[in-house]
Amino acid sequence: MKIHVTCSKDYDIYLEKGLLEQLHDYIDCQRKIFIISDDNVPECYQQTVSKQFPNSYLHIVKHGEGAKSFAVLEDCLTQMLRRNFSRKDLVIALGGGVIGDLAGFVAASYMRGIDFINIPTTTLSQIDSSIGGKVAINLDGIKNCVGAFYQPEMVLIDPLVLNTLPKRHFYNGLVEAIKAGLIQDKELFELFEQEELDIEQIIYRSLLVKKYVVEQDETEQGLRKILNFGHTIGHAYESYYHLRDYYHGECVALGMMAILKNPEIKERLSKILERLQIETTCDAEKDKVFTYLGKDKKADHDRITIVKVEQIGHAELEDIPITDLRTYL
Q: How far apart are CA 289 and CA 267, in angstroms?
């Protein structure tokens, strides 16, 4: 299955079971390839990828948000320089959203930009973060504070790699698909209310939502802001919990529950999250969470744009004073 994305640099998304073992059919084996992965990605996947490319170097970082730091960025760039990578070579991201963000920013930074390919291995990255061109690292505890818009050459998605994900990671990533349904695709949201979850269909429909939004507004000047539904408050929770105690999707879930005002939608979302074993409330100190909201990169001095959903499948943007966010907490 192929999805074509049209933006400043067009690229294709390939979604196919068993694709991880067929990468040589998609990627030029003659290029030097710097593969960035982490120690949570099963070694068998790392070896499956690296063995297909004789001119590759596998660079493994410690898993978690700590990988999105200047120290790790510098280490990746230094290793590439020492191994004489040129502007004609390639970076591959093999992992979840953290690795995609890091590897994309490495590629965007090295020699003013070289090609990179995203091979997402988690539900979160396959559904959302692997496409759209946002790459970044964190700064001083603030998530994605330093980054760029940098599109991949292609995205290669193998749903079979999700079989090795721990249950909590698997469900965490599905929150982004729930979000996509709430803001743009009612039928996608309703898939989560079915007895059995059709994961391939959930991934596919989520990608179509992201593709549509990114093609309309690549650099987030307007429409793309709807993808931030639940994220403004969610990122504040992530910072409050030191990017450690709660996963990204779990914090976005908390953010969506906080921002939703429609009781019927809130009840339906709550039931879905409970089914996925995701908490709908937390014990965070409101005043401390609010201090992080003021540092959000989407804030414009004392105002911020929030995303509201009053009807499933339709999102609206509203510019409000940051102080008004206290009422949502």
A: 24
Question: Which string of DSSP letters, residue by residue, matches 218-269?
Answer: TT-SSGGGGGGTTHHHHHHHHHHTTTTSS-HHHHHHHHHHHH---HHHHHHH
Among 115-119, 162-166, 255-259, 279-283, which stretch is predicted with the lowest mean pLDDT? Answer: 279-283
- What is the C-alpha to C-alpha distance for residues 143 and 138, in angstroms, rounded to an integer? 5
Q: How far apart are CA 200 and CA 239, in angstroms?
A: 32
Question: Which residue type occupies 11?
Answer: Y
Specify whether the CB–CB gap between 284 and 240 falls below 8 A. yes
**Among 138, 137, 172, residue whose Cα is nearest residue 245:** 172
State residue 289's pLDDT score: 87
Would you say 96 and 125 are in contact if contact means Cβ atoms under 8 Å apart? yes
Contacts of 245 by beta carbon, 8 Å cutoff, 6+ apart:
none
pLDDT tens per residue across span 21-54: 999 899 988 899 999 999 999 999 999 999 999 9
Give the residue carrying structure tokens 């004073």.
Answer: 321
